Amino acid sequence: MQRFLSYENTILAVVMMVSFINPFTSSALTTALPGIGTDYGATDAQLSWVIELFLISSTVTIMPIGKIADRIGKRHVFFFGISVFCISSLAVYFVSSLEGLYVLRLLQGIGSASIFATSMAIVSLITQPERRGRAMGFTIAAVYCGLSVGPALGGFFSYYLGWKTIFYFIAAVCAAAWVIAAVSMTKEEWIVNANGSLDMPGSFLYAVAMIAVMVGLSEIISLWYAKYMIAVGLVVFLVFLYGEWHKKSPVLPVRIFADNRVFSFSSLAAMLNYCATFGISFLLSIYLQRITGLNARDTGLILLLQPVLMALLSPFTGSLSDRINPAILASSGMVLITIGLALLSVNVSFPSFWLIALALIIIGIGFALFTAPNNNAIMGSVTPKYYGAASSVVSTVRLIGQVLSVAIITLILSQSGTAVNADWLADHIQEAFIVFTILCAIGIVPSAARSK
């Protein structure tokens, strides 16, 4: 019992609790959006910003926050993140407009960035290298548990108690994590560079670039100037990278990517992975309900196959990556995900619930093989000095991949040159799955090449 409640395992439990919250919040809110729209009289386009603002806020702030954590201590920033997430969730009680909810989602994005910029670094610092993969596996399992139960619990809360209770549940989990952390996380602050600069110019350029690109991608169909925003964002990002290369204390240590093959290739593989897979549930939800006529309950049960397998297998694959080269496991996972996506592409033309289930099982196993070992490879490729930056990069590439995935779906499904009917929808869903299959296949290359 004493070993189970060791310092290392207690901190891991806290990180698992807060890792559960982020995906749970996003997946639970998808079921609550209709209720939010009814309460505030919002359109679908307005409701989409409830999700988008959170992603943008997290992506923009995670790198600067990681830099701040290196200076003032990861423990302080970790507690700040939990506190912000908790308080902003409770504050929904006072929200009476959609604009107010937007503000809370921006704050939750900052809280999430503070948590994820530090949590993986903290786990890496308190865990022995030979057990790091196991710890990553349990953390990833918590993420997928949140993803799995989010729609079910979110639907329950929204239907019986009102959508605001989702936020109260989130606040309760955050409060419990805060108390456990306050009691147990007292040994170290994990300060890496107390005298380092915060690189305000670099942080500003990074924020401008990310906002321009993400908003441009999200609104590329509805705003005529969105493509110019993307172009400006990319130019600013190149200026940002050039500046970071020549700075002694950059917000993003760009030289890691040039000097560390494992780190750079693993990060690229992760971005392509999330880009290829984030839209799977969205596309299948539309396909199963609008084309095959399945109801929402049965659709949800089918979609559970993938995240449940991820949650069950990730601790095992994480531990396995402590003994086997993580590149081999992660690359094998990418191959399986590619096969699963290809099966989904075929299924659109030859509908079969069994084929969908088989594809989701293969993707679930592939994801479990990829994520924890890939994270273990990234964190194992850098020295403790760069754990904070590596933790921030892992979360950043995940968020960028998710935004790109949504942008691809938006572009494909917006090509309504003819009447939108079941055949048109099926053709374009198939097109999206083919694009995702190709992206995932491309991702196999950097995943396999990282250790050569």
TrEMBL record:
<keyword id="KW-0812">Transmembrane</keyword>
<dbReference type="InterPro" id="IPR011701">
    <property type="entry name" value="MFS"/>
</dbReference>
<dbReference type="InterPro" id="IPR020846">
    <property type="entry name" value="MFS_dom"/>
</dbReference>
<feature type="domain" description="Major facilitator superfamily (MFS) profile">
    <location>
        <begin position="11"/>
        <end position="452"/>
    </location>
</feature>
<dbReference type="InterPro" id="IPR036259">
    <property type="entry name" value="MFS_trans_sf"/>
</dbReference>
<keyword id="KW-1133">Transmembrane helix</keyword>
<dbReference type="Pfam" id="PF07690">
    <property type="entry name" value="MFS_1"/>
</dbReference>
<keyword id="KW-1003">Cell membrane</keyword>
<dbReference type="GO" id="GO:0022857">
    <property type="term" value="F:transmembrane transporter activity"/>
</dbReference>
<dbReference type="GO" id="GO:0005886">
    <property type="term" value="C:plasma membrane"/>
</dbReference>
<keyword id="KW-0813">Transport</keyword>
<protein>
    <submittedName>
        <fullName>MFS transporter</fullName>
    </submittedName>
</protein>
<keyword id="KW-0472">Membrane</keyword>
